[in-house]
Amino acid sequence: MTYAFKDTAVKAVYDGFPTDMRAIAMRLRELIFDVAWENPVVGRVEETLRWGQPSYLTPDTKSGSTLRIGLAKQGGCAIYAHCATDIISTYATTFPGSDWIEGNRAVIFKDQSEIVADRLRLLIFHGLTYHLKR
Question: pTM to 2 decimals?
Answer without folding.
Answer: 0.95
